[in-house]
Amino acid sequence: MAETLAKDGKSNLPMGAGLTALDEDYRENLYQVLDDVRERAPVLRDTELNHVFVTRHDDVKAVLRDRDLLVDPRTTLPDDYVRLFTPDAESETYEPSMLFLDDPDHRRLRGIVTQAFNPRSIEAMRPRIEAIAKELLDEMEGKSEVDFITAYAAPLPTIVIADMLGVERERRADFKRWSDDIVQAFDPLRGPETTARMNASQQAMRDYFTATIAERRAKPGADLISDLIRAEEDGAKLNNREVLSMCTLLLTAGNVTTTDLIGNGMHALLTHPAELAKLKADPSLIVNAVEEMLRYDGPVTDSGRHADRDIVIGGCPIERGRTVTTSLAAANHDPSVYPEPHKFDVTRADTHNQSFGGGMHICLGAPLARLEAQVAINMLLGRFPNITLGREQAVRRHLPAFRGFERMVVTL
Question: Model-level pTM?
Answer without folding.
Answer: 0.92
